[in-house]
Specification:
The protein has 111 residues and is mainly alpha-helical. It has three helices and two strands. It has a domain of 77 residues. It is 51% helix and 4% strand. The longest helix is centred in the middle third of the chain and has 27 residues.
Length: 111
């Protein structure tokens, strides 16, 4: 038995959707506040980590997993995701009339 051999059949991993880059780009263009920015940034970093894990599995030739993408495709996807992340983080949050906390106080309380 080898280092990775567990005697089980290999698990086929999920494909990363082909429309992931356009989806992240559209979401990045519609950032309205800090919550929007960090939610899409978190989603993007999760996908980058997933791609890097798939690449690592291919590099180690782990027989416990079947990676559904080629290394070249994953490297291209990683570059595109990193560019999206950079774009997200460079996006300025538009200042507007939205208060951070909206509290309706009673008329007699102006404290």
């Amino acid at each position: 038995m080898g280092l990775f051999d567990t005697g089980k059949s290999p698990k086929k991993l999920r494909k990363i959707p082909a429309d992931i880059i356009p989806y992240i780009s559209v979401e990045a263009e519609s950032i309205k506040d800090a919550n929007d920015k960090y939610m899409i940034a978190s989603y993007c970093t999760h996908k980058i980590e997933l791609v890097e894990w798939y690449i690592e599995l291919l590099d180690t030739d782990n027989p416990n997993y079947i990676v559904p993408h080629s290394r070249e495709h994953l490297e291209t996807l990683r570059r595109e995701l990193q560019a999206c992340y950079k774009k997200i983080m460079n996006t300025q949050i538009p200042s507007g009339d939205r208060p951070y906390i909206s509290v309706d106080y009673p008329e007699r309380y102006k404290g």
